[in-house]
Amino acid sequence: MPTFTPYNLTKTAFMGSTFCTMFRIKNILLLGLLLGLLLPACTGIGLQPEKTTVKERLPADFPQVYSLYTEDEALSGEGSAGLWWESLQSPELNRLMQLALTENFSVLSALSRIEQARYKALKAESWLYPELGGGAGVGTQKLKHKGRDSVSTDEWLLGLNASYEVDLWGRVRAVRSSEDEKFAATREEFKAARLSVSGALTETWIGLIENREHQDLLEQQIALQKKLLQLIILRFPLGKATALDIYQQQQVIEKLQGTLIPMVNNQAILQRRVAFLCGRTQLEETFLETRRFPDVNELPTLGLPADLLAARPDIKAAGLRLKATEWEVVAARADRLPALRLTASGRTFGDDAGSIIDNWFYNLAANLAGPIFDGGRRRAEVERVRAVADERLQKYREVVVNAVIEVEDALTLEQDAVESLASIQKQSDLARRTLREARRRYLNGSSDFINVLKEELNSLQLDHDIISQEGRIITARINLYLALGGSWMDDFNKERDENGK
């Protein structure tokens, strides 16, 4: 008797019979699929999320305009088209930003989360289609009779089965829609991550420049104070200066040099922080050479608070998460209703490969099953998901309110910094005049040196305050750009794709 293995089942008769069998199974599967597609259309039944308008989602006191500006004033700015950091007109910052938005660890992690959500959405979509499985096997059975030798029999088995859940109430579609909304939310969260990284990088870069300006000013002051010390020493033999004057001047120099030490160390810390935000442990010196603040232009186009709903990625992500949860409520409600499942199977077996066709049988079944008593488990799940939806709604409102407050705060802080800078500059001008007069009176012998020291330290502190206020103005402008959001993240994606990155 000829033997067969799974690799030599190629006899013509066997293949012809198998084709007929597979044809019958194919008809069964097509019938199941047809029923699955037609039944929902015929019934017209499908649960939907509860409809809520944008106005119902917003807080009751959502503002129409920003408090510091009327609608006309808010729209009179220069505009913020394109990448927001380009308004600072710094090639160095542009190079750093290119690194950060493509190699930062948080950005890359957010990109991985997009892939996870995408495949979860594809997995949820797969339940809309029938599932087909198959199996094959072979075994040997030995039979031993009295007075006879044992007889070995080979048994062959081939089978196919298919199943499909008819989505009568829209449960499967609700799960798919929920995952689709979550996928869209992760895309917005990716944009929010890049927005956050761009702000952190720019603020750290500005902090580095501010530290350098303070450091340069201190070094200039130390050099000036050393020259003044030499002048005092030259006046000492002439009786026009005292030992106390010399000691006091030396103390000033030592104090300034002591203040310079942490600034030098802080510069190294800020450089490493910039490198980390760019996904590196360190950056070449050519990447960080700027020692002066960039210029700040006019305000960008603010628009209206309602514009933030479409411009802020964190708001859009929170809204999409809320929609996803609303679809989860639909799925939980549908899970309480009866489910219709179609199954089809076909199996053939025999002790001879040639006799498999004679033992072939198949079946098609439709099962309608629903919960009768579950102790309230499914109802509790519906209420739980509804509570989650309420939580998501409050989270959405929180993000919206926080976005408006961030814009208001950025505008207030910049206005405060500008006004404070103007006041400090006036104080600095007066301090320089006072210092010149104090020096003149000391050199003429009509005043003590302590008056000169007092005015020098006052003038030095005001110079440092000017640097700090300039840094505050730029930081407030950065926060304003971050608070406004915008479409620059989509523009950056397009630019990166066009450049093949």
List the helices and strands and how they pair.
Elements: H1 12-43, H2 54-57, H3 71-74, H4 91-103, H5 105-126, E1 131-143, E2 151-166, H6 171-235, H7 243-277, H8 308-311, H9 313-334, E3 339-350, E4 361-369, H10 377-443, H11 449-484, H12 488-498
Antiparallel strand pairs: 1-2, 2-3, 3-4
Helix pairs in contact: 4-6, 5-6, 6-7, 6-9, 6-11, 9-10, 10-11
The termini sit apart by 65 Å
The CATH homologous superfamily of the largest domain corresponds to Outer membrane efflux proteins (OEP)
**CATH fold node name of the largest domain:** Outer membrane efflux proteins (OEP)
Provide the low-confidence segments as ranges: 1-26, 28-44, 73-80, 497-501
Q: Which architecture name of the largest domain does CATH use? A: Up-down Bundle
Characterize the largest beta sheet: strand count, sense, and whether it forms a barrel: 4 strands, antiparallel
Q: Roughly how many Å is the radius of gyration?
A: 38 Å
Given helix and strand content, the structural type is: alpha+beta
- Helix and strand sequence: HHHHHEEHHHHEEHHH
Shape: elongated
Quaternary: single chain
Q: What top-tier CATH class of the largest domain fits best? A: Mainly Alpha
Structural features, described:
This protein is α+β, with helices and mostly antiparallel strands. It folds into two domains: 1-44 and 131-166 and 338-370, no CATH class; 45-128 and 167-287 and 308-336 and 371-493, Outer membrane efflux proteins (OEP) (Up-down Bundle). It has twelve helices and four strands. It has helices at 12-43, 54-57, 71-74, 91-103, 105-126, 171-235, 243-277, 308-311, 313-334, 377-443, 449-484, 488-498, and strands at residues 131-143, 151-166, 339-350, 361-369. The chain has a four-stranded antiparallel β-sheet with strand order 1-2-3-4, covered by helices on one side. Strand 1 and strand 2 (151-166) form a beta hairpin. Helix 6 runs antiparallel to helix 9 (313-334) and helix 10 runs antiparallel to helix 11. It is elongated. 30% of the residues are buried.
